[in-house]
Amino acid sequence: MAVKQQQDSAAWRAICDKFNNAQNLTEVESRNDPENDPFRSKYKSFEADEAGMRAAKLGAVEYYLGVNHVDTEELSAGQEHLMNCMKLLERCRVSSENVSLFIHVRNQLGILWAGRDETEMAQGFLETAESIYQRYMKEDGSPPTDMTEYFTSEENLLTHQERTKRFELAYTHTMYYLAQVYKNLGETERAATYCHSTLQRQLQLNQFSPMEWALNAATLSQYYITKGRYMEGRHCLSAATVISGLAGEVPSETESERREHLRQKRAEIARCWIKYCLNLLQDSKKLLEDNIGELDTDRQDELKRARRREEEEEEKGRKSALLFGSEDTFDSIASLEEKVLCLFPLDFTEARSVFLIGQNYVTQAKEYFQMDGYVTDHIEILQDHSSLFRALAFFEEDLERRCKMHKRRVDMLEPICNDLNSQYYLLIRRQLMFELAETYSEMMDLKLTLANRQADTQSLDNHTIKKFNSLCSASAKYFQMFLDSLCSPEGKFPDVLEEEVLRPALVARFRVARLHSRLISSVPPVQLENLNRSLENYKYVVQYCEAHPEAAAAAETELELSKEMVGLLPLKINRLKARMAANN
């Protein structure tokens, strides 16, 4: 078998050599043809062209053998046939007869090496395929012969239109595989560009599965969102929503599996929309907040003045962007985009419009990802919903209404947190405990600010004190629950904190200390107990960081304040003790 392959290879190498001489015979030697035999070189050229075509045909056979072996997981045999195809084509000039095969075989070798995690080998084959396509389109551009035509009769040859479509589809595959390669190499910007171009070409060629295309576009949106490129992110998501609609509904009971698949993919696209709205609100908050986390009105005014210029830039950006869509879908995509802000919301009205869109997609996502069967997904969606409320609350000037938004967060997360099984969902429970603790703390601060605004003096009425203490205790309870979740089954707190819980644990200790010192009581023994618990937790932060100096960087601010309080609190405790002794 090996000897036979070598003989074939040598024979076809000779054929390729003949093909290489064809152009020379046509363009140079023909000038020297004698008058009595004016077409001698042309006839020789025809013979060489035929030899080149035979080389391409044998190369195609090797290609199909290679693909079959790869498809049946005989990778080494597949590689051998594909490389035989490459060798046959090596000494042939790229032409309209063989350019499609040149690209297909490199695509297949790219896939083969990528599957072996040899990403750079794959990159080499695919980038060569790309450059062959680009050079061919620049120098020739005519619809090239498709490989299937090597083995069909004259009357069954493809139309120019079909040839072009198949050739462009092969190059689309090159771009698709390159997007994967660049992603694996960590070249995310380049990967996104190739992914975007692939999606656009699939639409133009009308060669795509609507739901798969939509999910890829929605996934691409997440890259743009992380880069703060909300216009491109919105465009991808709008296109994903419109194109997913082309998949239609499947009413037949016999196709329940496919119907379930469609529902899941649409729910996943809804989740991408949630992330879009959430990130847009959060990035806007970062832009507008002052050094204590409140709305900076001067900055807000400044950004509003700059808004018109931003809107003009957005319009220019839209015109220069690579937009998705065909004649059938372009208007639908643009119509959906117009309903969603892509510039940073600068006030409550704008923020609320983004929030409501996000909340609508929360409802859609929860319809599929229900607690029964999708516990983790359902809770992640609830956490995003809570984060949407938190981001919106930043823009709300009315403190009562802001407090109610945080109460909504508590109402959606608290029952879940308390019902979850710690054995199976420990990490999720810890996240929920921490978020609930922080939410109660924010509500406590808001209630105190409101009370101080309404009171003429610093004295608070009993109702306000009771409410404040209730919120304060609830916050401390959830921080303590988080800390307790770190203990061994015997209830012992770890001597050394794992890296992933180091900062949360130190912050929780610090916050518990702070909360106990803020509890309001007129009973001295209760005051003393609260201050002692506060001091105990401040001391823990200081002593842990002294014993593990590398931990200090994880909670610098908390450590600095803890040291300060470890110095001050004993004085306060001693004064209280002295007062209690004097009263006895």
From TrEMBL:
Q: What single Pfam family name could you report for this chain, choosing any that match?
A: KBP_C
**Record's superkingdom?**
Eukaryota
Protein name per its UniProtKB record: KIF-binding protein
* UniProt keyword Cytoplasm present: yes
Q: Which family does it belong to?
A: Belongs to the KIF-binding protein family.
Q: Which GO terms describe its cellular component?
A: cytoskeleton
Function of the protein: Activator of KIF1B plus-end-directed microtubule motor activity. Required for organization of axonal microtubules, and axonal outgrowth and maintenance during peripheral and central nervous system development.
Q: Do you know which PANTHER family this protein is assigned to?
A: KIF-BINDING PROTEIN, KIF1-BINDING PROTEIN
- Biological process per Gene Ontology, one example term: microtubule cytoskeleton organization
Compartments, as annotated in UniProt: Cytoplasm, Cytoskeleton
Sorted UniProt keywords:
Cytoplasm, Cytoskeleton
